[in-house]
Design brief:
This is Head protein. The protein has 192 residues and is α/β, with parallel strands linked by helices. It has 7 helices and 9 strands; from the N terminus they run αααβαββββαβαβββα. 15% of the residues are buried. The C terminus is likely disordered.
Length: 192
């Protein structure tokens, strides 16, 4: 569905609504669409929706080799996007920025672990390749002319997800064992 079609539906609902509160909420939603269009982000929204439909890895806005580089970027950025995700190496971090007091932080994000857990719960697809070492797997990933958005491989018998972060042109290999970090701790046994 195109964004303009969604905006048309919102406009129709606003016109048909008899509730002032509902009209105000629909106006706000339409203003969000205007913001998207006027700031040139309609294609980014389309990309985001396509990545959701493809079950691609969580989007990232930037990638850094070290946390120090990421923090330098965060402090130098005139208006960091609060809530955006960045990669430091292959680890996800949340951008936290509050204008009041110019508060800026970069805490780790568990979004990858939850993403891998979802993939695991849906059932792992068959692996497309098998390797003895991470180095062999990385060489294979790097040699692919068209980077796979997400495929499963085995490294030394263990499943790994190969992911392509197209916004930052990064090919990554994530061990599926990270999904265990997202799993809730087992509940204590009830006392009798």
């Amino acid at each position: 569905m195109k964004l303009l079609e969604v905006q048309e539906v919102l406009g129709r609902l606003r016109h048909e609504s008899h509730s002032p509160e509902e009209k105000e909420k629909l106006n706000t939603a339409m203003e969000v669409f205007e913001f998207i269009f006027e700031t040139g982000q309609a294609e980014a929204v389309d990309d985001y929706r396509q990545s959701l439909e493809a079950r691609a890895p969580p989007l990232v806005s930037a990638r850094f080799d070290t946390r120090e580089e990421a923090m330098a970027w965060l402090h130098a950025h005139p208006a960091p996007l609060n809530g955006a995700k960045v990669l430091v190496g292959d680890e996800y971090f949340n951008v936290v920025h509050f204008r009041d007091g110019n508060f800026r932080r970069l805490p780790p994000s568990p979004v990858l672990e939850f993403y891998l857990q979802d993939i695991e719960e849906e059932g792992l697809p068959p692996p497309v390749a098998t390797f003895d070492t991470v180095e062999q797997a990385q060489a294979w990933v790097d040699s692919q002319p068209e980077p796979p958005r997400q495929v499963l491989i085995l490294i030394n018998g263990a499943p790994h997800l190969v992911a392509y972060h197209y916004r930052v042109n990064v090919r990554a290999i994530y061990p599926m064992s990270l999904a265990a970090k997202a799993a809730p701790a087992p509940a204590d046994e009830p006392a009798d």
